[in-house]
């Protein structure tokens, strides 16, 4: 499976500009015929949280139509990063939508752990469900940014079979070393692929780290972007998950009865 990570800069609070930029990048990435594309977190609005009432996507409708059409046109799976998703009841979640090659919604996940340091808890509602889905027969999970600091949440997905973790983020540059260490640790401890797409550029409060990357189940980096806008791609062989899990049987050696 060839995966392209679209490391975008994001226009602050400007969905129109961001849809146009994402469309250009998705079409450019599709030329290379990947099996799957991934976008960063909150790619339609950035962290313009105080204006979410105006700019969040009602029920994710615009994003779903936009991504579904591109997935179908190019016959590519698209993990559509996340967007601010306004619910009919009034709340807004930070939601990832996943589309398969047929342009059908294959999964959906709303960020469970809200990041207080960036005031998310003041403007967003947390998700309440796991992000498991299947793409081209592979068992996958979708997670968002701060979620990678919660190994027990990631484990809850891998014990249910996830072999590829798709992570969308807006991870700031001052904690780049955490980003790399946490992602590599999640791959090693769960013996799975980690596909992590961060944003590039700055907003009024933060500069972001880029360094989108794919890590294999042994913890080796398959590909890694630099800080700026970039499309980086890598090939994964999910047979390797089974090989690593057979070599060091972490999942059978767990003692979950003693972990609480
Ligand atoms: O955990 C961190 O250091 C960054 C998290 C973050 O930026 C986010 O969840 O949006």
TrEMBL record:
Keywords: Hydrolase. Pfam families: CN_hydrolase. One of its GO terms (molecular function) is hydrolase activity. Residues 1-238 form the CN hydrolase domain. Coiled coil: none annotated. Belongs to the carbon-nitrogen hydrolase superfamily. NIT1/NIT2 family. This is Carbon-nitrogen family hydrolase. It comes from Paenibacillus agri.
């Amino acid at each position: 499976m060839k995966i392209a990570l679209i490391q975008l800069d994001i226009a602050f609070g400007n969905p129109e500009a961001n849809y146009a930029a994402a469309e250009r990048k998705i079409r450019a990435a599709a030329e290379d015929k990947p099996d799957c594309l991934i976008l960063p977190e909150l790619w339609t609005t950035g962290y313009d949280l105080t204006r979410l009432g105006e700019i969040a996507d009602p029920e994710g409708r615009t994003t779903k139509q936009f991504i579904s059409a591109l997935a179908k046109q190019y016959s590519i799976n698209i993990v559509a990063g996340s967007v601010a998703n306004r619910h009919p009841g009034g709340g807004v979640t930070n939601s990832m939508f996943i589309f398969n090659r047929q342009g059908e919604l294959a999964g959906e996940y709303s960020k469970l752990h809200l990041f207080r340091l960036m005031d998310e808890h003041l403007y967003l509602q947390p998700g309440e469900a796991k992000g498991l889905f299947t793409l081209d027969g592979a068992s996958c999970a979708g997670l968002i940014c701060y979620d990678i600091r919660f190994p027990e949440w990631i484990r809850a997905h891998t014990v249910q079979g996830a072999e590829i973790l798709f992570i969308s983020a807006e991870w700031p540059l001052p904690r780049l070393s955490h980003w790399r260490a946490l992602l590599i640790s999640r791959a090693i401890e769960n013996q799975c692929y980690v596909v992590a797409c961060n944003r590039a550029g700055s907003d009024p409060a933060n500069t972001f780290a880029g360094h989108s990357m794919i890590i294999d189940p042994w913890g080796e980096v398959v590909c890694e972007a630099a800080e700026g806008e970039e499309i980086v791609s890598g090939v994964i062989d999910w047979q390797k998950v089974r090989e690593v899990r057979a070599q060091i049987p972490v999942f059978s050696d767990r003692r979950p009865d003693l972990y609480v």
